[in-house]
Request: fold
Amino acid sequence: MSLLHTCYRITDIDRSVAFYEALGFEERRRAPIRDEAINVFMSLPDDGPEPRLELTYNFGVDSYDLGTAYGHIAIGTEDLDGTLERLKAQGIEPERAPYTVSKGGSRLCFVRDPDNYRIEIIERNASG
Reply:
């Protein structure tokens, strides 16, 4: 068994694709679902051939309830400060300044996508 992808339901394809591209994702393909929806598959450059994120746009739906069970997805970067500067230039701000959960732990922060999904950005050193 292996995890193939995570799916979010979105309300604006262009806005969501632009947000995830700002985080470093690349659009891999789009797939219509009859006349009901469009799936946009995205991946980070080192994800391999399988897209890791499926953004589903359902025609005629303009909002979703996120619910209380959803947490976040996490992505890694080698330079959190540089990443946040690049995101800021595109109008994307962290929820709060970077921090560590425990002494000696990785620095991290959260941003929110256009549909209010939380994305954790974790600073990873070159050794992982």
Summary: The radius of gyration is 15 Å. Strands lie at 6-10, 26-33, 37-43, 53-58, 73-77, 99-100, 107-112, 118-123. The first strand starts at residue 6 and ends at 10. The chain has a mean pLDDT of 92.
